[in-house]
Design a protein that fits this description.
By secondary structure, the chain is of the alpha/beta class. About 45% of the residues lie in helices and about 15% in strands. The protein is built from 14 helices and twelve strands. Strands 1-2-3-5-8-9-10-12 form an eight-stranded parallel beta barrel, surrounded by five helices. A two-stranded antiparallel sheet has the order 6-7. Helix 5 packs parallel to helix 6, helix 6 crosses helix 7 and helix 8 crosses helix 10. It starts with a strand and ends with a helix.
Length: about 350
């Protein structure tokens, strides 16, 4: 199992990058940089590439609607170039609030657009002329001035197959990730409930998967703190769950709410959403089920963390993104080293 880390959206970037060199030495394998309506991820990934030597870097994730497919492919090839072949392209659909509210483009056909974007990226990286006739993307543009030409990437990419990770929650998108991507990145990964929520679409996608892609990299995430007196740190994730289940989308159009329901938390999810949308955010956080908070974390004594790591591995996780919560850099470093030793 690889050990990774997801950087935060806001604040502390320079400090986090300073720590990455030590985390790299301690065995951290990959770092993901998110992008929402925040600073862009690409600038930060380029900075990290220049400050590290072995550590893999990944977008986590670039919304598919915010760049043209060709620009996404160019960006990935550029980051793979400046990092010496260490980049993974993480993509996802985000949600209507961000795509239509921030980027001002329609949130439509997420599954179809994702599939076509993946196909176009791989054409670009193979330096094929970009003559693509899909349902959602047609290149060169039809209409317009009529002067568009099918071009190919000027530069030779470091790799013609840059790994692609698709962040997905819904059954159709999860099946697509298992079919066409090198990796799949869910959220709220609860090992004992993962098969209940995603087992069928994963099997469906894997049945259509090209063997050349290799085994699917399953990328989960969990906050990390190891010690006999750290269980109280689990409470810090409650506002995160409340935000996503309660407020990250409208009633009837919230993917995270739907996931909580698939986990079996229908009643709790409804009460969380009601409280959150009514402005009672603290109440919403308090309503998050205790076992959801506990079992999606790696927070507790060393023996407990070892048991949870085994549960993640047994459920199929191959990359585990941890968020160290210890108060000091030395303690965070020690926790990374212990996890690295436990997963082998």
């Amino acid at each position: 199992m690889r050990v990774g880390m997801m950087l935060g959206y806001a604040g502390g970037f320079s400090e986090a990058v300073e720590e990455l060199a030590d985390f790299e030495s301690a065995g951290l394998d990959i770092v993901f940089v998110p992008e929402a309506y925040s600073f862009d991820a690409v600038s930060q990934l380029g900075f990290i590439a220049a400050r590290t030597t072995r550590l893999e870097i990944a977008s986590g994730i670039l919304p598919i609607y915010s760049r043209t497919p060709a620009l996404t492919a160019m960006t990935a090839a550029g980051l793979d170039f400046v990092s010496g072949g260490r980049f993974t392209l993480g993509i996802g659909t985000s949600g209507p609030q961000v795509i239509e509210g921030w980027h001002g483009v329609p949130y439509d056909a997420p599954v179809g657009r994702t599939r076509e974007l993946v196909e176009i990226c791989r054409m670009v990286w193979r330096r094929e002329r970009l003559d693509y006739k899909g349902r959602y993307y047609r290149l060169p543009l039809e209409g317009g001035t009529g002067l568009g030409k099918p071009l190919k990437l000027i530069n030779r990419p470091v790799r013609e197959r840059i790994p692609i990770v698709i962040a997905a929650l819904g059954p159709k998108n999860v099946a697509l990730a298992a079919e066409v991507a090198e990796g799949w990145q869910p959220i709220f990964y609860f090992p004992e409930k993962a098969a209940l929520a995603w087992g069928a679409p994963l099997a469906e996608g894997r049945a259509r998967r090209d063997e050349a892609l290799g085994p699917l990299d399953v990328i989960a995430a969990a906050p990390l703190a190891i010690g006999d007196d750290v269980t109280g740190l689990r409470e810090f994730s409650r506002p995160f769950f409340a935000l996503y289940i309660g407020g990250m989308g409208a009633r009837g159009r919230n993917f995270y709410y739907d996931l909580a329901c698939r986990f079996g938390y229908e009643d709790a999810a409804k009460r969380i959403q009601d409280a959150y949308l009514a402005g009672r955010k603290d109440e919403a956080a308090a309503l998050v089920p205790a076992d959801l908070v506990e079992k999606t974390s790696l927070i507790g004594p060393a023996g407990y963390v070892a048991e949870r790591l085994a549960a993640f591995a047994e459920s199929g996780v191959t990359t585990l993104n941890v968020t160290p919560l210890a108060a000091s850099h030395a303690a965070r470093l020690a926790d990374i080293e212990r996890v690295r030793a436990l997963v082998g």
